[in-house]
Amino acid sequence: MNTWFECTAKYSKMGEDGREKKVSETYLLDAVSFTEAETRIYKELVSMVSGEFTVTRISKTKLAEIIPSEVGDRWYKAKVTFITFDEESGKEKRVSQFVLVFSDNVKAAYDQVIEAMKGMMADFEIGGITESPIIDVFPYVPEAQKMPDNFTKIINGDDPFGDDDNSEEIVEEDDLSLN
Asked: Strand, helix or coil at 157?
């Protein structure tokens, strides 16, 4: 499960009227810790914001899922309550989670949540959908790990040592000359 952090930044932005104005905007990103969240939001904002900016707030969110879409112009936050029946106690159990949906409007966001939840084993109901202040979402994308120049990646049966277990390993080039 991902840990999502809301990060708020203040900076100057050119308005539609051509004037520069101070704005405070919220972004969402996937990170392991507050430290990583701060590092990543600075990296993202440097490429997006011209001029100085300040990260004013970083907080963990309780989002269970992000539902992206190719169409839409804003993010909506939906409260989804899952309903299960406890056979031992004979009682109904309700567990609520929040889902973030990229959509055009509340109705389209509702439809997207319904579509995403199809096939769930538990019954559910949508308790509400509100427009979110989030401007953009930055999921974690692992960077390609740089190998030292004297290492070679061996994949799927290319192993010079005869270990054809279809695994991937990295060995020093000097080790390859042992044949």
From this structure: coil
Q: Give 6-15 pLDDT, tens digit per residue.
A: 999 999 988 8
Euclidean distance between CA atoms 12 and 29, whole angstroms? 22
- Residue among 21, 72, 84 nearest 51 (CA): 21
**Among the listed residues 34, 100, 37, the one whose alpha carbon sits nearest the alpha carbon of residue 64:** 100
In sequence order, what E strands does 87-168 have? 91-103, 123-131, 134-138, 151-154
Q: Strand pairing of 4-14 and 20-30?
A: antiparallel
- β 151-154/169-172 pair status: antiparallel
Does the pTM surpass 0.85? The reply is no
Q: How many CB atoms lie within 10 A of CB 146?
A: 7
Are 28 and 136 in contact by the 8 Å Cβ rule? The answer is: yes
Q: Per-residue b/e over 93-131, b at no fewer than 16 CB within 10 Å?
A: eeeeebbbbbbeeeebbbebbeeebeeeeeebeeeebee
User: What is the DSSP-derived secondary structure letter of residue 119?
Assistant: T
Q: How far apart are CA 5 and CA 29, in angstroms?
A: 5
